[in-house]
Amino acid sequence: MLMRTDPFREFDRIAQQVLAGAQGTWSRPASMPVDAYRAGDEFVVTFDLPGVDPDAIDLDIERNVLTVRAERRPHETAEGVEYQISERPTGVFSRQLFLGDALDTDRVSAAYEHGVLTLRIPVAERAKPRKIAITAPADDQKVINA
């Protein structure tokens, strides 16, 4: 159902791990991990967005390209607070998925619960499997060779 993904994303992930290992630091996980699967007559895509306010998430679909944009804002800190560790990334993150023509992008639903954004995209009627009836000629329509 996905047409393709970003071919350079995996390369970037590997490069980050190699560079982080060379510097002796731990690599951060992807900022917006995604799972995508088909469940019956719908395609389900989930994004991990912990700590993101639902109002800070934008979804757009244009020409079968789904774009998810989210902003994780820094926490308000009291005066005199000094962080000892700050590993949770903040800022704007985005991810694009190229959807196939077999999906009905006019009927996408989105829900956000416990830091997980779940999109449900129905499979288009024209792409669903269907039975084709086979007809046989009636007895009176048989052709007789003389």
Automatic annotation (TrEMBL):
Residues 25-137 form the SHSP domain. It comes from the Bacteria. InterPro entries: A-crystallin/Hsp20_dom, HSP20-like_chaperone, Small_HSP. It holds the Pfam family HSP20. Belongs to the small heat shock protein (HSP20) family. This is HSP20 family protein. It comes from Actinokineospora terrae.
